[in-house]
Amino acid sequence: MRKIAANAVRQPANLSIDSQLMAEAKGLNVNVSRAAEAGIAEAVAAEKTRLWKLENRATMEAWNDYVDKHGIPLAEHRQF
């Protein structure tokens, strides 16, 4: 996962968060801003991965078809 820089420029945001969750987080001294930022970073990374897979699906399928038909290139040189 992407490391979030401590000195990054921050932008204020208004969020709606479950009140019970917020109370629990405050009771546990969770930095809610940092936790939200980490969650957003994780969601962004997951979406980028999903989009990359969609954009490259045809290439991956073509490669898998090639390997199914011809085997792994240079397989005779593998030592495992």
Give a verbal description of the structure:
The structure is a single chain. The chain is mostly helical and 80 residues long. The chain has a domain at 17-71. 59% of the residues lie in helices and 0% in strands. It has helices at 19-27, 32-55, 57-70. The protein is elongated and about 60 Å long. The two termini are 30 Å apart. This is Post-segregation antitoxin CcdA. InterPro entries: Post-segregation_anti-tox_CcdA (IPR009956). Keywords: Toxin-antitoxin system.
SSE diagram, text form:
Blueprint lengths: L18 H9 L4 H24 L1 H14 L10
The end-to-end span amounts to 30 Å
Gyration radius over CA: 22 Å
Mean pLDDT: 92
Helices and strands, in N-to-C order?
Answer: HHH
What structural class do you assign from the helix and strand content?
mainly alpha
Bin the strand percentage: under 5%
Helix content: 55-70%
Q: Uncertain runs with pLDDT below 50, 5 residues or more?
A: none
Shape: elongated
Q: With helices defined by DSSP (H or I, 4 residues minimum), what is the helix count?
A: 3
Main sheet record: none
How many β strands by DSSP? Answer: 0
